[in-house]
Design a protein that fits this description.
Layout (H helix, E strand, L loop, with lengths): L4 E11 L2 E8 L14 E5 L5 H6 L3 E4 L2 E8 L4 E5 L3 E7 L4 H11 L6 E16 L2 E17 L4 E9 L3 H20 L2
Parallel strand pairs: 1-10, 3-9, 4-9
Antiparallel strand pairs: 1-2, 1-8, 2-7, 2-10, 4-5, 6-7, 8-9
Length: about 180
C-alpha cells in the first residue's frame, strides 16, 4: 500500500454549523511540493476521487490530526465530484474543537483553507520544461482537513447559517479598528 499523502487547499465557507466548499480543484496547480524525485507541481484529473467516494469511508479533521475529528461520511460529511473538483459539506460537531474551528473561521483567524489526505492508486509523472509535474489520476481519499496553509490556492470553504450577520459585523469592526488605529499614528 502506498504512503498517505496530504494536500492543502483554500476554498471553504462556514455558515452556522455547516462548513462547505472544495477540498480539491481539478487541473489547478499545487505549490511546489517536495519528493524523492525532486520538487514538483501536482494537478488532479477529474474523476480522481470517484472510485474512492463509492468505496470508502472518509473523515474530516482539523489539521490532519485524527485526534481532532470533525465529521465523517456519510453521517456528517458529504463529498461529491463535480466539474470543478471535490466538493464537500460537513456539519461541525458541538464540541470544543468543532466550536473552535467555527469561531476561528468566523473571526478570520483561519481562512477556510482545506487539505486532503490520500494514497495514490494511479498517477503520471512527466517533465514539462524544467519542471517535474505529477498528475493524480486515481486516489484512495482518506480524509479532508481544515488547515492553515494550502498546497492548492484555488480551493477553500465558507461557514453557512445564522452566524453570517455576526461574522460580517466582526469583520467590519476589525476593519474599522484597523483604519482607526492607522489614523492615530
Amino acid at each position: 500500500m502506498s504512503q498517505l499523502e496530504l494536500r492543502e487547499v483554500d476554498s471553504s465557507s462556514v455558515e452556522g454549523r455547516v462548513l462547505s466548499g472544495y477540498a480539491a480543484v481539478f487541473r489547478s496547480p499545487s505549490v511546489l511540493l517536495p519528493s524523492a524525485k525532486g520538487p514538483f507541481v501536482e494537478t488532479i484529473e477529474p474523476g480522481a476521487f470517484s472510485r474512492s467516494l463509492r468505496e470508502g469511508r472518509v473523515w474530516a479533521y482539523y489539521g490532519h490530526d485524527d485526534r481532532w475529528p470533525l465529521a465523517r461520511t456519510p453521517e456528517t460529511l458529504q463529498l461529491s465530484e463535480d466539474s470543478r473538483g471535490l466538493r464537500f459539506s460537513m456539519t461541525l460537531p458541538d464540541t470544543t474543537y468543532g466550536n473552535d474551528v467555527a469561531a476561528l473561521i468566523e473571526g478570520g483567524v483561519l481562512e477556510g483553507k482545506m487539505s486532503f489526505g490520500f494514497r495514490t492508486k494511479q498517477d503520471r509523472w512527466e517533465r514539462r520544461g524544467d519542471a517535474l509535474h505529477r498528475t493524480l489520476i486515481d486516489v484512495d481519499l482518506v480524509e479532508v482537513s481544515v488547515v492553515r496553509e494550502p498546497a492548492y490556492a484555488a480551493t477553500g470553504s465558507s461557514l453557512r447559517g445564522m452566524n453570517e450577520l455576526t461574522t460580517s459585523r466582526c469583520r467590519l469592526a476589525l476593519r474599522v479598528r484597523a483604519v482607526g488605529d492607522s489614523d492615530m499614528k
